[in-house]
């Protein structure tokens, strides 16, 4: 019957043909801001969303309302994909949800180029910003994608944009300041509390608080998967209806837990951050953080799932200073070594001026996690060292859904000759025909683009099913690259990111000692309010600075353990930082795999110790800084 705050201004901007940025708190009604205009505009609204569960929930709800909406993800069966492609081609599809990585699919981009796109909506848009708390390289390329396809309007949506992040988003999509719509983050029905506790007493404190709460749907957030299981089992033994949820569980089990929570068959879900995004449950009465959140952005997003019905809800944070070690170590573990960065730069500079690479092989060859490889390549693009020429698949597998002779029989002479040559150049298996477009192009003397277009077109006709394989990315390198300067620049970028991540975690600890928790939190996102009057400190709970975590020095026994690993001269652990990662239990491509060093009993020997302390010990024992 009426709009929520901010929605009308966003909808009006989009219907007037302008792009907009909507910064609304979790539960503030961001989805309506693109779903409603999508029904009024001529063409497809493409929605970029990072989570399959979120896409599924929204698409199911829209379809129940009679809206022509669909999603493309790894769980969608082939027959349904064909129907989606038909809807794109004939203009009957109104909304299509995809993950940002889908834009790297060569065939999908080809289809989009032939589709009338009315609007692009980007959920979790803070991911495009290098200042954001969970920067994702694939998001950074969305702006170039919108320009390439000539998208007439863009809606960027987020619940966790600081002023610096908002500036980045507006610049990327040319959004006018007047079309940046930000509603208040202050939610008077949420009571924020912070409780400094010892590690060995927080479980008892959690049970006490859940008992005081008197029931109601509740989310308990933890950092590690094993902690989710341990806490859920402890709560179940204490008589609470509780279940664990984390990314390591089978998808069927995750769905069972989520569905049971939505039906109120399970009252308490103990979860890692894998749970919650897109959960449209208005009556969540409590959100508890047993472990520290990694940033105030994460904290704001997670507590925002409480009390969407406007009724009073609790948001409590148990602060154990030692928890910071795990979060900080994750950040340190993502920073590639100087040797890895230099090897990465040399490998790219040793290629011809125009080349293609496999990110998987770069990750494996240089012991850099796959997401970090994407970040390295993105930084090189931002600095003008590389120019992306588009992703492609080095191979396709084709399965004929109609007889091959029937396809050829419908073609004129020239097309029949082309397709006969194309099919003949592949490697035939019992079911699938394997094609490598580059090799086929050289073999039959036809352009690669024509081969890929033919495959895409036949799939669209329903004549073949395809399985792409071997994703590679094309680049053109700037001539005369100064390898030393580029390496130093990349090292500085990663050092800055590491420093920023560490500072965000420190910011959570500083927040815990504020005199008004609500005022401090909304102030972080650029909103100024007076003391809220309803958080723990405002209600008279004592405020105390969180003490520093203290650890015993790593002594002679630790030195002997480091020396024993170093003496084995594992190539994968040659760099002090790589050895420190191994000892702290931080996985990497070089130590993984079936026979990898992660199977070694010494892997993670110091997983509860600060990474920098372990690194200092390694450098002292090995004598190599």
Measured as a percent range, the helix fraction is: 40-55%
Strand order within the widest sheet? 3-4-2-5-6-1-7
Shape: globular
Number of H- or I-type helical stretches: 25
Tags for this entry?
single chain, 43% helix, 16% strand, 625 residues, 6-stranded parallel β-sheet, 7-stranded parallel β-sheet, alpha/beta, globular
Written account of the structure:
It is a single chain. This protein is of the alpha/beta class. Helix content is 43%, strand content 16%. It contains 25 helices and 18 strands. Strands 3-4-2-5-6-1-7 form a seven-stranded parallel beta sheet, sandwiched between helices. Strand 12, helix 12 (296-303) and strand 13 form a beta-alpha-beta unit. The N and C termini lie far apart (65 Å).
Short description:
With about 625 residues, this protein is of the alpha/beta class. The protein contains 25 helices and 18 strands. The N and C termini lie far apart (about 65 Å).
Secondary structure topology:
Elements: H1 7-15, E1 20-23, H2 32-40, E2 44-48, H3 52-64, E3 69-72, H4 78-90, E4 95-98, H5 106-112, E5 117-122, H6 137-140, H7 142-149, E6 154-158, H8 163-173, E7 180-182, E8 190-196, H9 202-213, E9 217-221, H10 225-237, E10 242-245, H11 251-262, E11 268-271, E12 284-289, H12 296-303, E13 313-319, H13 324-334, H14 338-349, E14 354-357, H15 359-366, H16 370-382, E15 386-400, H17 404-409, H18 413-424, E16 427-428, E17 433-435, H19 437-444, H20 448-460, E18 464-477, H21 483-511, H22 517-524, H23 556-567, H24 576-583, H25 611-622
Parallel strand pairs: 1-6, 1-7, 2-4, 2-5, 3-4, 5-6, 8-13, 9-11, 9-12, 10-11, 12-13
Antiparallel strand pairs: 14-18, 15-17, 15-18, 16-17
Helix pairs in contact: 1-2, 13-21, 14-21, 15-16, 23-25, 24-25
């Amino acid at each position: 019957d009426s709009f929520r705050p901010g929605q009308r201004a966003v909808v009006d901007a989009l219907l007037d043909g302008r792009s907009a940025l909507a910064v609304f708190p979790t539960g503030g009604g961001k989805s309506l801001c693109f779903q409603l205009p999508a029904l009024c505009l001529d063409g497809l609204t493409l929605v970029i969303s990072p989570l399959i569960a979120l896409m599924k929930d929204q698409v199911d709800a829209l379809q129940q309302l009679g809206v022509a909406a669909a999603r493309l993800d790894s769980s969608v069966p082939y027959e349904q994909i064909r129907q989606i492609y038909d809807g794109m081609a004939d203009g009957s599809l109104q909304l299509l949800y995809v993950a940002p990585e889908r834009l790297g699919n060569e065939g999908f981009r080809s289809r989009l180029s032939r589709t009338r796109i009315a609007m692009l909506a980007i959920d979790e848009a803070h991911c495009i910003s290098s200042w954001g708390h969970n920067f994702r390289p694939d998001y950074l390329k969305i702006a170039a994608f919108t320009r390439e396809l000539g998208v007439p309007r863009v809606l960027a949506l987020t619940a966790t944009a600081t002023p610096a992040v908002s500036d980045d988003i507006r610049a990327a999509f040319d959004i006018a300041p007047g079309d940046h719509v930000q509603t208040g983050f202050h939610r008077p029905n949420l009571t924020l509390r912070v409780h400094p506790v010892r590690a060995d007493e927080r479980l008892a404190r959690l049970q006490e608080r859940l008992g005081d709460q008197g029931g109601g749907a509740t989310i308990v957030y933890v950092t590690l998967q094993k902690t989710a299981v341990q806490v859920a089992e402890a709560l179940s033994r204490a008589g609470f209806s509780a279940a664990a949820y984390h990314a390591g569980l089978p998808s069927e089990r995750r769905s069972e837990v989520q569905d049971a929570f939505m039906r109120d068959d399970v009252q308490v879900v103990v979860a890692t951050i894998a749970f919650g995004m897109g959960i449209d449950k208005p009556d969540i009465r409590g959100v508890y953080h047993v472990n520290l959140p990694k940033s105030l952005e994460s904290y704001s997003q997670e507590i925002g799932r409480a009390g969407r019905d406007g009724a009073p809800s609790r948001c409590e944070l148990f602060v154990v200073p030692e928890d910071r070690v795990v979060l900080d170590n994750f950040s340190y573990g993502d920073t590639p070594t100087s040797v890895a960065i230099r090897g990465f730069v040399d490998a790219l500079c040793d290629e011809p001026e125009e080349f293609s690479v496999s990110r998987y092989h770069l990750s494996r060859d240089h012991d850099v996690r796959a997401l970090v490889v994407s970040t390295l390549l993105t930084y090189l693009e931002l600095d003008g060292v590389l120019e992306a020429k588009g992703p492609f698949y080095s191979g396709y597998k084709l399965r004929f859904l109609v007889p091959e002779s029937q396809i050829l029989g419908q073609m004129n002479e020239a097309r029949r000759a082309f397709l006969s040559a194309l099919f003949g150049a592949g490697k035939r298996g019992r079911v699938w025909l394997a094609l490598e477009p580059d090799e086929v192009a050289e073999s039959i003397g036809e352009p690669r683009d024509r081969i890929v277009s033919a495959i895409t077109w036949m799939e669209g006709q329903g004549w073949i099913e395809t399985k792409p394989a071997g994703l590679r990315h094309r680049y053109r390198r700037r001539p005369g690259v100064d390898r030393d300067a580029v390496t130093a620049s990349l090292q500085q970028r990663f050092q800055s990111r590491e420093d920023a991540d560490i500072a965000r975690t420190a910011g959570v600890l500083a927040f815990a000692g504020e005199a008004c928790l609500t005022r401090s939190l909304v102030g972080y996102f650029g909103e100024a309010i007076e003391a809220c009057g309803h958080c723990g400190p405002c209600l008279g709970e004592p405020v105390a600075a969180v003490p520093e975590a203290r650890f015993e020095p790593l002594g002679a026994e630790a030195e002997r353990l480091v020396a024993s690993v170093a003496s084995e001269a594992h190539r994968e652990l040659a760099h002090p930082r790589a050895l420190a990662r191994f000892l702290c239990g931080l996985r990497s491509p070089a130590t993984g795999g079936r026979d990898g060093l992660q199977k070694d009993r010494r892997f993670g020997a110091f997983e509860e110790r600060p990474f920098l302390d372990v690194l200092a010990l390694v450098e002292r024992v090995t004598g190599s800084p």
